[in-house]
Amino acid sequence: MRQKSDSCFSSHSNRQDTLWKKGYPNIQYGAQLVTLNGVKFKDTQKQILQFKFAYLQSKYLVVDQKYINLENIQMKRMMVPQQNLACLKLNNNFDSLEIIGSVICIGEIYDYCKLYTIQENFESHYQILKLMGKGSFAKVFKIRQIENQQIYAVKIFNKNKMFDNEEENQKSLWKEIQIMRLMNHKHIIKLREVYEDNNKIYIVTDLLNGGELISHIEKQIKVYDESLVRKLVYNLLDALAYIHERKIIHRDIKPENLILKDENDISNISLADFGLADFYQNDGQYLFKRCGSLGYVAPEILQDQHYDFKVDVYSLGIVMFLLLTGEQAFKGSSTSEVLQNNTYGKIDAYKLAHCHVSLEAKDLCQQMLNFDPNQRPTAEQAIKHPWFKVDNKHISLHTISMNRIPQNLKGQKEFLFSLTPLWVNKSLRSISDSSDNLCAQTLNVRDRTIKEILDYHHFKLDSTVYDLEDDYIDEQESVANRIENHKLLVKQRSLP
């Protein structure tokens, strides 16, 4: 087992092989290309490499007929004293490469490569301003870049807490970073760069200032109409079509992951948190197969069936239902009842049928919530629905308000995960958005199917609330230890 001071990326395949590969990489047509002129290359032995052409494209540095995959290798920028030059050093576990050129030229190369590589000395580049949220394994801070004074956000993981299930935790981390690097869409959160030191991993992203969508509606605008819902759903379908085109499934579409970029523009929404996202696998084999959030997850996931991109459409349909009616799609007086209704797609059809919105809006919502995924539209098909073409004067002007009736259960904040503790409560609650009467419970369902959990007569929720201020949980006191083959990973109260 590696020492705690080692890199979480040291076992990544790109670190475990030679730095240079022969030939040309397989690069998507139309990817940005940056030609490297006026630079020198030095290899591991400090020998100058002669070359005819060099360029950066996608995640690759191509030099003549060989290339370097930049993904998760280490990068460090240095100044060359008294020569007005700069140096960029790239290395993995075996080889290194130095790129030497003018400060401006190296700066441009650095700005390109920082998305794909791992850097060190985070605190030399950023100033931490404010704690924004925290969970079991990570905290989110508002930060300022020292060089240009730009404001961003950083998600900081504690590496020392990743040693249990270490291999799975590392793969989860690599997967999220890999997917976020592919995202370049106006309604999807954008990754900027990744840092690592002995104890922490720092994922720097754009700062989304507006807070969670539903919290903003409840606290700020109070009431809204169908035209706003249409803008929001269109923008989110556009984002889903983008990620699905790249063969990625998000698998955790829910209000907490829909964040406003600016509180003054509620339609400017961003899809966040790719901790449960994965590349679509035709054979259904995923690192974590059964995952999502109770009340928003598609039935085929809960029923352990083969699923595809349409699980995201279903989850967005649940969000759309909430926005159109102001209430949750699945009713229930207990968590088991909510889970039953979610598992079999028993939405509150009466509420949708009698809400004061256009027939087109109801029709699209019903299509997105079709229990049969074969009859459910793709994101690309849904975005072409007639609702988005109807003139504003033909849609309902009735005001809508949130009416999420408090229920005597934790169902609206309960997450179902499979196999891993890394992403337990990974959806970090904003401190300002949290409410004291809501809490989250995460269950490991590795040893039981959803049906077995529902059929188990002694299954119930524990009312104990754990304080994660010290990130400590006494699992011996939890009710899950009294349930055969069923382990409670963590239970967290909402942040004060």
UniProtKB/TrEMBL annotation:
Known catalytic reactions: L-seryl-[protein] + ATP = O-phospho-L-seryl-[protein] + ADP + H(+); L-threonyl-[protein] + ATP = O-phospho-L-threonyl-[protein] + ADP + H(+)
MF (Gene Ontology): ATP binding; metal ion binding; protein serine/threonine kinase activity
Keyword Calcium: yes
Domain called Protein kinase: residue spans: 126-388
This protein's record includes keyword Metal-binding: yes
Cofactor(s) needed: Mg(2+)
Regions crossing the membrane: none
Keywords tagged on the record: ATP-binding, Calcium, Kinase, Metal-binding, Nucleotide-binding, Repeat, Serine/threonine-protein kinase, Transferase
CDD domains: STKc_CAMK
Enzyme Commission number(s): 2.7.11.1
Leading EC class: transferase
Organism (species): Paramecium octaurelia
InterPro entries: Prot_kinase_dom (IPR000719), Ser/Thr_kinase_AS (IPR008271)
Name this protein carries in UniProt: non-specific serine/threonine protein kinase
Family: Belongs to the protein kinase superfamily. Ser/Thr protein kinase family. CDPK subfamily.
One GO CC term, this protein: nucleus
PROSITE patterns xref list: PROTEIN_KINASE_DOM, PROTEIN_KINASE_ST
SMART domains per the UniProt record, alphabetical: S_TKc
Coiled-coil regions, chain positions: none
